[in-house]
Amino acid sequence: MAETGKRRISILGSTGSIGVNTLDVVNQLGGREAFEIVAITGNSNIALLADQAKACGAKLAVTADDRQYAALKDALAGSGIEVAAGREALIEAGARPSDWVMAAIVGTAGLAPTLAAAKRGADIALANKECLVSAGELFVKAVAEGGGRLIPVDSEHSAIFQSLEDDQHHAVERIVLTASGGPFRTWTREQMAGVTADIARAHPNWSMGLKISIGSASMFNKALEMIEAKHLFDLRPDQIEVIVHPQSVIHSMVGYADGSVLAQLGCPDMRTAIGYALTYPNRTKLDVERLDFAKLARLDFEAPDEVRFPALRLARTALERGGVQGAVMNAAEEIAFHAFCAGRIGFLNMADIAEQVMDEMVGFGAAMTMDDVFAADAEARRRAGDIIAQR
Ligand code: NAD
Ligand code: MG
C-alpha cells in the first residue's frame, strides 16, 4: 500500500486490449481515488499511452520502443510524469514497488518485466500466457520465492481458478478448457490454406489483440493455454482436456474424483476475469453484461479436431516432452505468426514451422535457469527464421 492508503498498481501493456480493459476496471473500482498507478507501459501507440498516463495519473510511463522516447517525452511535457523507453525501462516498470501488477504485454517480450515484478513479491495478474509457456516451473518458482500471488487472467484459467476448491487438489481429476473454435471451426484445411491475416483475425465472440486473435483461428492460443494450465495448476498432461464450445459462455471447468464438474460462466468480456484478479479473493460489482439464459437457449460442444488444428497436438507433444519444448514451440510460432501477418507464409504453415523446430530441438535439455530459457527461445527463433527464409 502507498502511504496514502491507496493500492499501488502497475499495468504492463496498458495500451493493448487487456490493458485498456484493465484501466476500465480500475476506473469502475474508484480510479485515482482508490489506486496509485505506479507505472504503465506501451509500445508504438504513444498518443494512447500518453493519454492514459495523464488520465490515470501514472507516476511512470514507458514505451518499449527506444525510438519513441522523444515523442513520449513531448506528449507528456509539463505533466510531471516520468518517461522512459527501451527494454531496461520495461523491466524497471515491473521492478518499481507496487502491490499488484497486470502482466499484459504480448509475447515473450513480457517475460523479463513480469519476472522483475514477481521477484520483488508483487501479486501478478497474469494475462501474458507466454511467461508460463516459455519459463514454466522457473516462472512459478520466481513468483513463489518473491512471495506474491499468481492470479490468472486468461478467461479459461480464471474460470478454473474460480472453480478449484481449497485443499481439494488431490481430488481434481481433470480440467476442461473450453475453446470457441475460432472463425474456421467448420472450415476444411483446403479452405484455411488460403486465408489472410485480415480474415483470420475476425473472432466470432471476443475482441482481442492481433496475436491472440490469429491464435484463436489456428487454435494455437488453446495450445498455449494447455501448457499454461499445466504450470498454473500443477497437472499431468493427461489431466488437461479441450472441448470446443462455440458460444464461449462456459469459460472452463474442473472435473473432480466424485464425478462433479464445476464451471465458471459469463459473457465473453475480459473485464470479469480482470476484476476478479484485482479484487481476489473478494468479488465486487462490475458493469458488464449479464448472461441471459433464456436468450442463450442452448450451449453446444464438439470434440476438437487435431488434424485441422494441429496446434493442439503440438501442445500435447510439448507437454509430454517437457524441458524447453514449450519455449521452443512458442518462439517458433511467434516468428511464424509475424511471417504470416507479413504475407510471407500461409496460415497452415505456422504449425508446420513450429513442429519442425520442435522436432529439431528435441534434444535440448531442461532449463535450469532463465538464461537457458532465453537461449532456447533465441535458438528456436533463429531456426524458424531460417526455415521461412528458405521457402
Ligand atoms: P495487444 O496486442 O492488444 O496488446 C499488447 C500490449 O503489449 C500493448 O500494450 C503493446 O504496446 C505491448 N507490446 C507489444 N509489443 C511489445 C514489445 N515488443 N515490448 C513491450 N511491449 C509490447 O494484446 P492483448 O490482446 O491485450 O494480449 C496481451 C496478452 O494477454 C497476450 O499475452 C495475450 O495472449 C493475453 N491474453 C489476452 C486476452 C484478450 O482478450 N485480449 C485474453 C487472454 C489472454
Ligand atoms: Mg483464453
TrEMBL record:
Domain annotation 1-deoxy-D-xylulose 5-phosphate reductoisomerase N-terminal: ranges: 9-136
UniProt GO BP: isopentenyl diphosphate biosynthetic process, methylerythritol 4-phosphate pathway involved in terpenoid biosynthetic process
Residues the record lists as binding 1-deoxy-D-xylulose 5-phosphate: 129, 155-156, 180, 203, 216, 221-222, 225
UniProt pathway: Isoprenoid biosynthesis; isopentenyl diphosphate biosynthesis via DXP pathway; isopentenyl diphosphate from 1-deoxy-D-xylulose 5-phosphate: step 1/6
Binding-site residues, NADPH: 15-18, 45, 128, 130, 209
Sequence ranges assigned to domain 1-deoxy-D-xylulose 5-phosphate reductoisomerase C-terminal in this UniProt record: 150-233
Reactions it catalyzes: 2-C-methyl-D-erythritol 4-phosphate + NADP(+) = 1-deoxy-D-xylulose 5-phosphate + NADPH + H(+)
EC number: 1.1.1.267
GO MF terms, alphabetically ordered: 1-deoxy-D-xylulose-5-phosphate reductoisomerase activity; isomerase activity; manganese ion binding; NADPH binding
Binding site for Mn(2+): 154, 156, 225
InterPro entries: DXP_reductoisomerase, DXP_reductoisomerase_C, DXP_reductoisomerase_N, DXPR_C, DXPR_C_sf, NAD(P)-bd_dom_sf
Cofactor(s) required, per the database record: Mg(2+); Mn(2+)
EC category: oxidoreductase
Gene3D superfamilies on file: 1.10.1740.10, NAD(P)-binding Rossmann-like Domain
DXP reductoisomerase C-terminal domain boundaries: 265-382
Pfam families linked to this entry: DXP_redisom_C (PF08436), DXP_reductoisom (PF02670), DXPR_C (PF13288)
Alphabetized UniProt keyword annotations: Isomerase, Isoprene biosynthesis, Magnesium, Manganese, Metal-binding, NADP, Oxidoreductase
Family the UniProt entry places it in: Belongs to the DXR family.
Record-linked NCBIfam families: Dxr (TIGR00243)
Function: Catalyzes the NADPH-dependent rearrangement and reduction of 1-deoxy-D-xylulose-5-phosphate (DXP) to 2-C-methyl-D-erythritol 4-phosphate (MEP).
Listed name of the protein: 1-deoxy-D-xylulose 5-phosphate reductoisomerase
